[in-house]
Amino acid sequence: MTATATRPQDAAPPGARAKRAPKRERQGAAWVFLSPWVIGATVLTLLPMAVSLYLSFTDYDMFDAPQWVGLRNYTQMFTEDPRYWRSVTTTLTYVVIAVPVQLVLALAVAIALKSVKRGKGFYRSAFYAPSLLGASMSIALVWRAIFNDGGTVDNLLSGVGIDIGGWINKPGWAILSVALLTIWQFGAPMVIFLAGLQQIPAELYEAAAVDGASWWRQFRSITIPMLSPVLFFNLVLQMIQAFQVFTPAFAVSAGKGGPADSTLVYTLYLYDRGFTASHMGYASAMAWALLLAIGVVTAILFRTSRAWVFYANDNNEGAR
Amino acid sequence: MSCALALVLALGGTLTGCGGGEGGGSGGKVTLRFTWWGNPDRAARTEQAVKLFEKRHPDVDISTSFAGFDTYKAKLATQAAGGDAPDVMQLDYRQINQYATSGILLDLGKHPELRTTDIDKGLLATGVVDDKQYALPVARGAETMPYDAALWRKAGVPEPTINWTWDDWTAAMRKLKAAKKVTGGRVGSTDPGQSEDIFEIWLRGRGKTLYTDGGKLGFTADDLTRYWEFCTKLRKEGLVSSAEQTTQMDGSVENTPFGRLKSVSDFNWDAPSSGYEPIVGKGLKLAPLPAGDDGKPALYYKPSMFFGASAKTPHPKQAAQFIDFLLNDPAAGAILGATRGIPANDSIRDKVLPKLEGFDQVVSAYQKQFEGKLNDPPVAPPKGDASLQSTFSRDYDQVSYERLSPREAAENYITEAKAELRQ
Å from A39 to nearest chain B CA? Predict the structure, then answer.
């Protein structure tokens, strides 16, 4: 993406330069225009990150000054804290359920919408709506009520003879109800898929149809390869978000990560350590471990992308 | 030139957003922030008292906010650490030590506006740290067993007495289970295994304490194992709430098994038990918790909460006046009643409280029956104890969902507790 963004600047006609203000002044103006962002990023992002990196090597209870403890937070986390590993397992379970299901659903709806002739705008908005609503606490609370015992889902399932009880109070089921809340918000990837689908040249399908290719064959040999960059983009984005899931787990478990730690996702445990137990040093160490883990997983995804992501415009460049 | 223009364009938008809003004196008016935790009943009464204060002090504006205890605790700690503690705040016994020694609280002893002559001497001392009066006790509370006395009677179960034991209690639970038709299949009680407070009473009945005078753990993994094995037996027999019910508890009365009408009794502090009344109805009564095996009540009076002021408040005088009003003013006393417990102010307790009706009377009568019969309260919980209450119920969650045995969970708890207390 950055490569394309810088191109127009390089390509500016050399003659234009003479008429403009000297380079230094132009740079100054650029910096000034950038200043809100630069100041914001420094004060609100980079500085806190640096502080949190420092705190991750300390014992800090928010009241007394931080005490340097070296790597103790990290060793405790990896070797002595069974809850830490429980939260890692819970988060991985969540990511493995939520991300693929959400993407498949988003793609299916996008393909269905592509062929809709009438009321396209309406359907698109209707399917996107959950993404706007879903991030709010109120929806998460409604979710809690729906999946509680005596809630809508419990009553519906009991009506057809399936007696599970309240999902949110069953260790195996609670994480599913959290994942469902995320899956339901498939609007953002759907819109991106839709845009990607419209980019695929119609001639490809026409040619395939002439050759007698079935719908499935067209889907596998045209749609998927042509869409793979978009698929990859959605996968990376949703995965990064899924690792940081907090609100649905917090709301559905009333902030506790229960029952029996079954919805104790990583960031919820981080919050619990930092704000409930006042171990800010430990919480900071957890945050950095998460950052590194997400970095590693993203790097792995980028590596594998060479094998399955197909860029139509640079087939002769080969793998970079 | 172009730089200056850009700067104006770029920063103009951000800067305009920053004016106003800083607490303080628009038109000479002083604004105090006051925060507390509690239920809607306490909120309604507190708002009423705040209005009266504002009427008497037209120059002071009180902006209030409240939350449930767990949320409140986390929020206050964050605010305090950020140097933004509210001017006047409600504090828990477990917070006093930490907040006072970290320089967050104002030494209220230095403010003559705040009179302490009528406050119960024993309770007053619980707000003193390093010889300074950092916090003032508001009221005293006691643990209780709220229960539906009407159902209890119909089921033919004898009324609880001041010296009934855990064996008597278990027998009552069995009778309630047998009287399924009367109770509609509700269990006898909330599972006591999730509550550190109940465990403390159970321990005291056996002559032990949560913490020793030196601030160390006063019990062993064996004690806790025995307690959780007792609870597990009750749960498996169907006498107390199931894991699915117990896990829904979040500190609010509405989400307890009793509040959800899934059980016939519960455990709670006396003042907040008023919240059960709208749900359970007039049959609601408060019973003492089971006594020790020697028949002596294991309960104790605890300072239920404190008021403190921020060391950084720009208006210490008004903050002291406001706390004085909440604690000592008879009109405020009449509005607040027993919503925070039985008032620590002797004259309000003797003169104002008897005139009140409804649940205030129930709480008042409940505490009166113990006058002169209780053992000394335990020492103040040591620093580091604050998060152990939730650790306790979380570890028991593992027991009630049968992921860990009582022994394994008890050993986990002891390990975590020692780490928190830095022992």
Answer: 11
Residues whose CB falls within 8 Å of the CB of residue A40, separated by 6 or more in sequence, listed in order: none
- Cβ contact B397–A64 (<8 Å): no
Structural domain that includes position B204: 143-299+387-420
How far is C-alpha B279 from the geometric centre of its chain's CA atoms?
Answer: 20
Its pTM stands at 0.81
Q: Does A171 contact chain B (CB < 8 Å)?
A: yes
Between chain A and chain B, the number of residue pairs with CB atoms below 8 A apart is 88
Q: Which of B77, B250, B398 faces A62 most closely, judged by CB atoms?
A: B77
- B194 phi and psi, to 5 degrees? -85, -10
Query: What domains sit in chain A, N to C, each tagged with a CATH number?
Result: 77-314 (1.10.3720.10)
Tell whether B212 and B233 lie within a shared domain: yes
CATH number at residue B333: 3.40.190.10
Tell me the percentage of chain B whose pLDDT exceeds 90.
Answer: 51
pLDDT tens figures, A22-74: 677 778 888 888 999 999 999 999 999 999 999 999 999 888 889 999 999 99
Q: Of A217, A38, A251, whose CA–CA distance to A134 is shortest?
A: A251
Q: Tell me how far apart the alpha carbons of residues B91 and B106 are, in angstroms, rounded to a whole number.
A: 13
Span B4-26, pLDDT tens digits? 444 444 444 443 333 333 344 44
For tokens 């607040």, name the residue.
Answer: B336
Min Cα separation A33/chain B (Å): 6
A19 CA: distance to closest CA in chain B (Å): 16
Q: Scan for tokens 């988060």, then name that residue.
A: A91
Left if phi > 0, otherwise alpha if psi is -120 to 50, otherwise beta: which for A22? beta
Is the Cβ pair B10, A261 closer than 8 Å? no
Task: Determine the Cα–Cα distance for residues B55 and B42; give it in Å rounded to an integer.
Answer: 20
**Same domain for B360 and B289:** no
Residue B380 lies in a domain: no
Alpha-carbon distance of B180 to B165, in angstroms, equals: 24
Is a pLDDT exceeding 50 seen at residue A260? yes
Parallel, antiparallel or unpaired: strands B187-189 and B263-265:
parallel
Tell how strand B302-309 and strand B135-141 pair up. Answer: antiparallel
B105 touches chain A (CB under 8 A): no
Contact indicator for B206, B220 with CB cutoff of 8 Å: no
Return d(Cα B247, Cα A167) in angstroms, integer: 12
Higher per-residue confidence, B76 vs B41: B76
In a domain, B14, yes or no: no
CA–CA separation, A191 vs A124, rounded Å? 8
Q: B248 and A169 in contact by Cβ < 8 A?
A: yes
Nearest alpha-carbon partner for B143 in B378, B325, B306: B378
Contacts with A, B 377-396, CB within 8 Å: 386-387, 390, 394
d(CA B164, CA B365): 18
Asked if residue B276 and residue B222 are part of one domain, the reply reads yes
Are B88 and B192 part of one and the same domain? no
User: Which two three-digit tokens encode residue A289?
Assistant: 């471990």
Domain annotation covers residue B374: no
Q: What is the DSSP letter of B357?
A: -
Supply the DSSP symbol for B382: P
Q: Does some domain include residue B8?
A: no
Residue A25: half-sphere exposure toward Cβ, Cα within 13 Å: 8
